[in-house]
Amino acid sequence: MILDLYAGPGGWSHALTVLGVPDIGLEWDPWACKTRAMAGHFTLRTDVALYPVWPWVGRTRGLIASPPCQAWSMAGKRLGLVDQPLVHQAVADLAAGLDTREELLGPCRDKRSLLAAEPMRYLHALNTAGQPEWIAMEEVPDVLPLWRQYAAVLRGWGFSVWCGILNTADYGVPQTRRRAILLASRVRTAQPPPPTHAQIAEPQTLFGPGRDRWVSMAQALGWGATDRPVPTVCAGGGPGGGPEPFPSGSRKTLAAARARGTWTPRPEGTAPTSRHEQPDRADRHGRHRSTGRPPTASTTAEDHRWSWSLRSNNQANATVRPLSEPAGTLFFGHRANECTWVAEPAVQDSPAPGAGQSVAAPEPIRITAREAGILQSFPASYPWQGNKGQQFSQIGNAVPPLFAAHLLAPHLNVTLNPDDFALAA
After folding, report:
1. Which of 21, 290, 305, 372 has the most neighbouring CB atoms within 10 Å?
2. Which residues of 231-246 are buried (b: 16+ CB within 10 A; e: fewer)?
3. How many whole angstroms from its chain centre is CA 231?
């Protein structure tokens, strides 16, 4: 079996499914379990810290672990850094067969910190049977010192180990998500997979093909450079519950837009449209909504004044990326960390009709779960379950499946075809 600790909604599992090798996921969150069930992933709903290890001994080929990162993430209070000595002590004790978790948990500032030590409990038990054959673990960059401690233990048990920081954009994910990775194997030299993409495309040389340019949000979402689509509009307070998804500063302007009739939510699956669009005006794919005919120049003059960027939160130092680049790291859970599409003046080759007139920029628009999932390299049809907040929590904490596939394929002796990971299609 391949055992996936803290399996989440299925980032590793979807990668394994595409590679043709299923896993068994251990996950506690009920909505992540529902998502996994709808996606066809086998799951045991349980607390990883309480589940016994003996059922896996002698029958586990690979072990995957992505402990919850909230205690360590820059999106949270980062109390895991304060608790780091306690976590290192727990790992050292578990590697020696001593279970001191209960006494170490008391002094922890964040009770989730010790979850990063749990994989060692499983690894110690499995090692008694000469297993697993390979290991893959992922966390936020600040956990790298802990992975180095794991690496020292595993090398003492006969593993080849590599650990370091990788950027998911270097592997075709439309997001510059940096993660601390540990790879270990009993049967092959552990090393990171060769990157397939780079910030600047590389030409072919005598030594082989160069790397492609990072995948942009526009490419991943299927928004062509000449289409200039407005992002999907997502309204809060509707069926399924969840908080109002717009930043606090935009709610009043959005309410005013609703009152003016210049903004309406669109059903999922319909073509993206401008907030200024009336029923007989053109969408940004160049078609009238009612007739499907191309518009006249006058109907799109205002549309071409703006280009869209993704803002990672509503704080002053937020990451803002244009559609022509990958997204910044996606994380959700707090209103200040909710991603929104923002309009910026577009660069024009020539003045647009009516240039010189002052035209207000469109209001920020909350990214949808579908769009966020695509930017994590999940397929557009992935069956996210729960209300908006629950879906975004799952997406932000997931491992990008395309990135996971690059990490896992060498251990499975499988050839990875990135084209198997359809995004907006």
Report:
1. 372
2. bbbbbbeeeeebeebb
3. 18
How many other C-beta atoms can be found within 10 angstroms of the C-beta atom of residue 25?
26
pLDDT, residue 109, reads 84
Does 309 fall in a domain?
Answer: no
Helix (H, G, I), strand (E, B) or coil at 136: strand
Q: How many CB atoms lie within 10 A of CB 124?
A: 19
CA dist 41 → 32, 234, 301, 383, 412 (Å) = 11, 28, 48, 12, 18
CA distance 164 to 177: 14
- Strand spans (E) along 81-196: 134-139, 160-167, 178-185
| Distance, first Cα to last Cα, the chain | 31
Q: Please name which of 19, 14, 63, 1 lies closest in space to residue 40, comparing C-alpha atoms.
A: 14
Between 386 and 278, name the one with better pLDDT.
Answer: 386
CATH of the domain at 196: 3.40.50.150
What is the arithmetic mean of pLDDT over 98-116? Answer: 90
CA-CA distance, 385 to 391, in Å (whole number)? 6
- Predicted TM-score (pTM) of the model is 0.81
pLDDT at 300: 44
- AA identity, residue 275: R
Instruction: State how many domains the chain has.
Output: 1
Q: Which amino acid is at 309?
A: S
Q: How many CB atoms lie within 10 A of CB 324?
A: 13
Query: Does 352 reside within a domain?
Result: no
* Alpha helix ranges (H) inside 159-294: 217-221, 251-260
CB under 8 Å to 100, separation ≥6 — which residues?
89, 90, 93
* Domain-embedded: residue 282: no
Quote the CA–CA distance of 102 and 96 in Å, as a whole number: 16
Give the model confidence (pLDDT) of 226-252 as tens digits. 444 455 544 433 333 333 333 333 333
Residues 6+ apart with CB under 8 A from 369: 384, 388, 391, 392, 395
Q: What is the mean pLDDT of the chain?
A: 80
Round to whole Å and give the CA distance between 176 and 180.
13
Name the residue range of residue 104's domain. Answer: 2-201+398-420
For residue 358, the model assigns a pLDDT of 61
Task: Report the alpha-carbon distance of residue 204 to residue 212 in Å, rounded.
Answer: 10
Distances (CA, A) of 130 to 8, 61, 133, 181: 27, 10, 8, 22
When pLDDT is averaged across residues 328-354 and rounded to a whole number, the result is 71
Helix crossing, 401-412 with 11-19: angle to 10°? 50
Q: Is residue 171 a part of any domain in this protein?
A: yes
Q: What is the pLDDT of residue 294?
A: 33
Residue identified by tokens 């790992």 is: 91
